[in-house]
Design goal:
This protein has 342 residues and is an alpha/beta fold. Helices cover 27% and strands 25% of the residues. It has helices at residues 41-48, 97-100, 141-145, 148-161, 178-189, 201-209, 223-230, 248-253, 276-281, 294-305, 322-330, and strands at residues 2-5, 16-19, 29-38, 64-72, 84-87, 90-91, 111-112, 124-128, 132-133, 169-172, 193-198, 214-217, 236-241, 255-263, 285-288, 313-318, 337-341. The strands form four sheets. Strands 3, 4, 5, 8, 9, 16 and 17 form a seven-stranded mixed sheet that branches. A six-stranded parallel sheet has the order 12-11-10-13-14-15, with helices on both faces. A two-stranded antiparallel ribbon has the order 1-2. Helix 4 crosses helix 5 (178-189) and helix 4 (148-161) packs across helix 10 (294-305). The structure holds zinc ion. Zinc ion binds at residues 92-93, 95-96, 98-99, 107, 109. Residues 92-93, 95-96, 98-99, 107, 109 line the site of zinc ion.
């Protein structure tokens, strides 16, 4: 099969469009003919290499897959050859206490397609049967592949961890990112008042079209001051963080008394500090979040199929142009998802 493969970590030009062996499936797995695969920041980190994460090389990246079932293992009973499918990115043991309690993103063997195992930037990918989601027929393959990782992550952050309540005020950083554009829609689904940030007027306009109520240009305005103005000095109930060092202090300063800060990443750096007096006197909660559960993605897909949550596709690249797509995502000029057509 054709695949994007890299033999060593490095800049986008380590990605090669080349021949790779067809994956061999196990009895509880399916082989999927990939139609589309969307890019995530995770793909950039996997390509660059992460400290203490020994990614098996050569490696095929890609976590977000839509396609058709090409082959089923002997034990597979719930899907059939030819059926359209979207894959849940998270692959877990399925047997431990965390998995059995439905918190499979806490499984110690948790990985994603394209992370410690080969992913979907290829003509075929193998995945466990339990990772197959019903296909939302209202979506194209490119749109369907734009859903899983970012919507699952944003849903787990806002609903699973921060326990968002109807009508709360939410600050969502980075409206143009995949998780940001998903979070705006989820928060609006819960009737929240959404304040969001971006670095260009064009991105802010798109955020408004997704339902954001208040817009902050982080290049020309100070986030904490705008949040104070918009909320009459109260602050917001929930801050949706994934930016890290560059926004951390503004994020903390934007919280109301009793507010929750939820973070899933740190694209601008891991160093952050906190004044403990501020943490206890304002009774704040700092919450970490990692990926999401399979069950949450089933819920998300129902809302996608009924049109209440929508994929946001920015740009589609042919798989052979993987290096150009990675360079484009690294430039942060996108609004929504960058997707490969296979
Ligand atoms: Zn497990």
């Amino acid at each position: 099969m054709k695949a994007i493969l890299f033999h060593q970590h490095g800049p986008p030009d380590v990605l090669q469009y080349t021949d790779a062996p067809d994956p061999a499936i196990r009895p509880n797995e399916v082989l999927v003919r990939v139609k589309a695969c969307s890019l995530n920041h995770l793909d950039l980190w996997v390509r660059q290499g992460l400290p203490n994460v020994p990614i098996p090389l050569p490696h095929i990246p890609g976590s977000d897959v839509s396609g058709e079932i090409a082959q089923t293992g002997a034990e597979v009973t719930t899907v059939r050859v030819g059926q359209k499918v979207v894959l849940i990115p998270g692959v877990t043991c399925g047997k431990c206490g965390a998995c059995l309690s439905g918190q499979d993103n806490r499984c110690r063997q948790f990985t994603n397609l394209g992370y410690m195992i080969d992913g979907g930037c290829a003509e075929f990918v193998r995945a466990p049967e339990v990772n197959c989601l019903p296909y939302p027929e209202n979506l194209s393959f490119e749109e369907a592949a734009s859903i899983p990782l970012v919507f699952q992550t944003a849903w787990h952050m806002l609903v699973g961890r921060a326990e968002l309540q109807p009508g709360e005020d939410v600050l969502i950083l980075g409206a143009g990112s995949g998780v940001g554009s998903a979070a705006i829609q989820i928060a609006k689904f819960f009737g929240s008042r959404v304040i969001t940030t971006a670095g260009t007027g064009e991105k802010l306009q798109k955020a408004k079209e997704l339902g954001a109520d208040h817009l902050i240009n982080h290049k020309t305005q100070k986030i904490r001051e705008e949040v104070r103005r918009i909320t009459n000095k109260r602050g917001v109930d929930v801050v949706f963080e994934h930016v890290g060092t560059a926004t951390w202090e503004d994020s903390l300063a934007s919280l109301a008394v009793g507010g929750r800060l939820i973070t899933c990443g740190a694209t601008t750096g891991y160093d952050a500090k906190i004044d403990l007096r501020f943490l206890f006197s304002r009774q704040l909660s700092l919450l970490g979040s990692y990926m999401g559960t399979k069950s949450e993605l089933h819920t998300v897909m129902k809302l996608v199929a009924s049109g209440r949550l929508k994929p946001v596709v920015d740009r589609v690249f042919p798989l052979a142009k993987a290096a150009a797509a990675h360079t484009y995502l690294e430039s942060s000029s996108q609004f929504g998802k960058v997707v490969f057509m296979v």
